[in-house]
Amino acid sequence: MPARVYECDRSEEADLKKVLSYDPYTDPNLIPPAPASADIPAEKLTEDQKKELEEHEKQVKEVLDKLKTDPKAQVIFARQGCSLRDGATLGLNANKLYLYINAADDILDKAEQRFKNEFKTIKRAQKLDEDAVIAVIKNEEDKAGSGFGSIFGG
After folding, report:
1. What angle do CA 42, 24, 7 make, to 5 degrees?
2. Most confident of the ranges 27-31, 51-55, 145-149
3. How many CA atoms lie less than 13 Å away from 103 in the CB half-sphere?
4. Helix/strand/coil (H/E/C) assignment for every residue in the chain
5. pLDDT tens-digit readout, 106-150
6. Are the C-beta atoms of residues 94 and 73 closer than 8 Å to each other?
7. Percent of the chain with pLDDT over 90
8. What is the distance between the alpha carbons of residues 83 and 134, in angstroms, rounded to a whole number?
């Protein structure tokens, strides 16, 4: 999968972290939790419990249908390979944050559009900076992979 790196000002760090960690499909404010009757075998449900479950399923379906058409729900960063890094720790601009995203091209294109709509300072990093961030991330992944290999006898 391709990777891209973006940079942004520190002033947007909190908002960016929220966007990166949010998954609407797990948000209990959007998708209502299942009623207690959901744990009861179907043959033991009362008519009221069956109606309650049917209503819940209807509500969930409506929310899922809305999410399928919501542009923000098309890019869920929590499900992608993302890493937000401090520029100083990367040997780059200490006043910037660098966001590494490893995802399919269509996700990256949608992500870039979303950034333009929601953030003032985020932009694609210059090629030299992008290459440096990707090299650091790949090096860390390789080290982590070899560490697990030695733990499990690889």
Report:
1. 155
2. 51-55
3. 23
4. CCEEEEEEEHHHHHHHHHHHHCCHHHCCCCCCCCCHHHHCCHHHCCHHHHHHHHHHHHHHHHHHHHHHHCHHHHCCHHHCEEEEEEHHHHCCCCCEEEEEEECCHHHHHHHHHHHHHHCCCCEECCHHHHHHHHHHHHHHHHHHHHHHHHHCCC
5. 999 999 999 999 999 999 999 999 999 999 999 988 887 766 555
6. no
7. 81
8. 10
Domain residue limits, the chain: 3-23+76-151, 25-72
pLDDT given for residue 46 in this prediction: 94
The pTM is what? 0.80
CA-based nearest residue to 6, from 125, 103, 116: 125
Report d(CA 113, CA 100) in Å as an integer. Answer: 16
Rounded-to-integer distance, Cα 30 and Cα 64, Å: 9
CATH fold label, 3-23+76-151: Alpha-Beta Plaits (3.30.70)
